[in-house]
C-alpha cells in the first residue's frame, strides 16, 4: 500500500535530508586513495552519531538476507549497489558509490552518490555524468499527474541515448516510514504507465547504470551487487517528494524551506 506523507512530515524529511546530504558530502571528500570501505563506514557511524540521527541500513534485514552489518554501502568499480565495506584499499582511478540511509525523528531518508578517486578514465567520467544527468531527468518527472512510468522512461531514454544501460533487476522505491516502501520506481518503462503521482508521495529515485551489459549478480559476501561481466557501474540517488509546486529534492543541504 502506498502511504502519502503530510506536509508536516515532508518538512521533517527535508530537515533530516539536509543532515544526510552534509554527511554524504563529508564522506565523499574523505573517499581518497588508500582509504578502505571499513574506515569510511566507521566515519559514517561517527558522523551519524554527531548529528543525532540513526543509521537506517545497519542491521537491516530484508526477507532472505542476513542483517546488513554496516551503516554505509561502499560499492567500488563494478559493484552497483549494496557494497559491503571491507579492508581493501581504494585506489587512484576507482569510482566509489556511497549509499547511506538515516532515520530522523522517526522518518527514513536514502541518498547515494558515486565519486571518482583522483584522475579517472574518460569512460568512467562519462558514466558518472550520464548517471547524474539521468537522476536529474527522472526527478523532473516527479510531478502531480505524471506516472511512475514517466520517471522510468525518462531515465532510460537519458541513459540508453548515451550508449549505456540501466540495471533492470533493481529499482527505486517509496521511502519515509521505512527503508523500503511501495511503490517500486524502476529506471525504465513506458510513459503514462504505472501509478499516477499524487502530492505527498515520497520516493527514492536511483538510477543504476552500467557501461555495457546491464545484468547483475550478488557477490560472495551475500550483499554486494556486481555487474555480471565486470563492467563499471554507477549509482545516484535522492529522496524526492511530489508536491503541488513540483518535485522537491529532500536530500540536499538546502532542502529545508
Can you describe this structure?
Helix content is 27%, strand content 26%. The protein is of the alpha+beta class and 257 residues long. A hairpin with a 6-residue loop joins strand 7 and strand 8. Helix 1 crosses helix 2 and helix 3 packs antiparallel against helix 4. The radius of gyration is 17 Å and the shape is globular. The model has no long low-confidence stretch (mean pLDDT 96).
Major β-sheet annotation: 5 strands, antiparallel
Rounded mean pLDDT is: 96
Distance linking N and C termini? 29 Å
Number of strands: 15
Q: Quick one: overall form? A: globular
The low-confidence parts are none
Helical residue percent? 25-40%
Helix and strand string, N-terminal first?
A: HHEEEEEHHEEEEEEEEEE
**Strand arrangement, major sheet:** 8-7-9-14-15
Percent of residues in beta strands?
25-35%
Structural class: alpha+beta
List the helices and strands and how they pair.
Blueprint: H1 7-29, H2 37-50, E1 54-55, E2 72-76, E3 79-81, E4 95-104, E5 107-116, H3 122-140, H4 148-160, E6 165-166, E7 172-174, E8 181-185, E9 202-205, E10 208-210, E11 216-218, E12 225-227, E13 233-235, E14 238-243, E15 246-249
Antiparallel strand pairs: 1-4, 2-4, 3-12, 4-5, 6-10, 7-8, 7-9, 9-14, 10-13, 11-12, 14-15
Amino acid at each position: 500500500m502506498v502511504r502519502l506523507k503530510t506536509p508536516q512530515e515532508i518538512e521533517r524529511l527535508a530537515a533530516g535530508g539536509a543532515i544526510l546530504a552534509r554527511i554524504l558530502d563529508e564522506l565523499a571528500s574523505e573517499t581518497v586513495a588508500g582509504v578502505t570501505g571499513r574506515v569510511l563506514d566507521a566515519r559514517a557511524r561517527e558522523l551519524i552519531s554527531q548529528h543525532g540521527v540513526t543509521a537506517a541500513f545497519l542491521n537491516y534485514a530484508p526477507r532472505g538476507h542476513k542483517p546488513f552489518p554496516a551503516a554505509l554501502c561502499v560499492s567500488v568499480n563494478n559493484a552497483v549497489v549494496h557494497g559491503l565495506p571491507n579492508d581493501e584499499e581504494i585506489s587512484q582511478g576507482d569510482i566509489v558509490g556511497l549509499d547511506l540511509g538515516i532515520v530522523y525523528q522517526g522518518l527514513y531518508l536514502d541518498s547515494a552518490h558515486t565519486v571518482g578517486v583522483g584522475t579517472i578514465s574518460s569512460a568512467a567520467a562519462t558514466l558518472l555524468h550520464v548517471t547524474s544527468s539521468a537522476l536529474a531527468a527522472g526527478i523532473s518527472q516527479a510531478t502531480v499527474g505524471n506516472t511512475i512510468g514517466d520517471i522510468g522512461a525518462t531515465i532510460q531514454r537519458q541513459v540508453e541515448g548515451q550508449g549505456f544501460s540501466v540495471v533492470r533487476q533493481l529499482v527505486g522505491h517509496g521511502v519515509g516510514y521505512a527503508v523500503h516502501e511501495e511503490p517500486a520506481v524502476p529506471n525504465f518503462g513506458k510513459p503514462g504507465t504505472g501509478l499516477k503521482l499524487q502530492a505527498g508521495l515520497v520516493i527514492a529515485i536511483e538510477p543504476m547504470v552500467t557501461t555495457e551489459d546491464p545484468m547483475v549478480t550478488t557477490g560472495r559476501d551475500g550483499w554486494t551487487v556486481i555487474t555480471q561481466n565486470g563492467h563499471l557501474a554507477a549509482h545516484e540517488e535522492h529522496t524526492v517528494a511530489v508536491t503541488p509546486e513540483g518535485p522537491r529534492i529532500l536530500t540536499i543541504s538546502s532542502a529545508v524551506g
